[in-house]
Amino acid sequence: MLVWDFYSMRRKVAAEAKPNPAHFAIADLEQKIGDRLVLVTQNVDNLHEQAGSKCVIHMHGELFKSRCDRCERPPFADDKRYERLTEIPRCECGGRIRPHICWFGEMPYEMDRIYDELARCTVFVCVGSSGVVYPAAGFVGEVRGRATTYYVGSEAPENAEVFDHVLEGKAGEVLPGVFVIE
Ligand SMILES: [Zn+2]
Fold first, then answer.
1. Separation of 97 CA from ligand 1 center, angstroms?
2. Distance between CA 118 and CA 57 in Å, rounded?
3. Closest-CA residue to 101 (of 70, 61, 71, 74)
4. pLDDT digit string (tens) for 122-181?
5. Which of 82, 84, 129, 153 has minimal CB crowding within 10 Å?
6. Torsion angles phi and psi, residue 168, rounded to 5
7. What's the pTM?
8. Could you confirm whether 60 is annotated as catalytic?
9. Measured distance CA(94)–CA(74) in Å, rounded
10. How far apart are CA 84 and CA 87, in angstroms?
11. What does residue 175 show for φ and ψ, rounded to 5 degrees?
């Protein structure tokens, strides 16, 4: 019940958020190069989708989706706020409905797909990361030597030395200039 109070509050806050220029810059790039762009995010909000991004892999799940903790039913769109419940909502199968969020200690989602994409990556851009939280902090190491790697963010990450280029600045200001397609 407390879990649903917490995520209901997060849904409420996230529902009022709006994409920033960095979200739009990434969506614009996808418009230009199509499925050559794969966006992997640790964000659980839907601001990339709101900005127009299509191919988004949410490795930590999605705040506006729920899933059953028992059956194979895929995660489904859910913006409901389950506040002050006396009973956890149930799936038709009898399982409990939980937020589609990767909790501490759980394996992030779609890792196989992410490593497949890293294996064929030629340009790697990391935006706004501390560089200490694995597995995401290890992605740049996977492509190093094969792909040209960029970091963009207000502060250099802990693993800055692994990147070919570190561009310090607000992502919303730097990114639109990075993605210049001739
Ligand atoms: Zn179920």
1. 8
2. 13
3. 61
4. 999 999 988 888 899 999 999 999 999 999 999 999 999 999 999 999 998 998 888 776
5. 84
6. -85, 130
7. 0.92
8. yes
9. 15
10. 9
11. -55, -45
Instruction: Please give the distance of CA 167 from its chain centroid, rounded to a whole number.
Output: 21
Q: Which two tokens stand for residue 157?
A: 């990450």
Q: For residue 15, how far is its CA from the centre of ligand 1 (angstroms)?
A: 26
Report yes or no: 154 and 169 within 8 Å, Cβ to Cβ: yes
Strand partners, 98: 67
| The one catalytic residue among 58, 60, 100, 165 | 60
Cα–Cα distance between 98 and 68 in angstroms, integer? 6
Going along the chain from its start, the domains and CATH numbers come out as 19-59+108-178 (3.40.50.1220)
Beta bridge mates, 21: none
Contact between residue 103 and residue 19 where contact means Cβ atoms under 8 Å apart: no
Q: Where are the beta strands (DSSP E) in the chain?
A: 39-41, 56-58, 61-68, 76-77, 97-101, 123-127, 148-153, 165-168
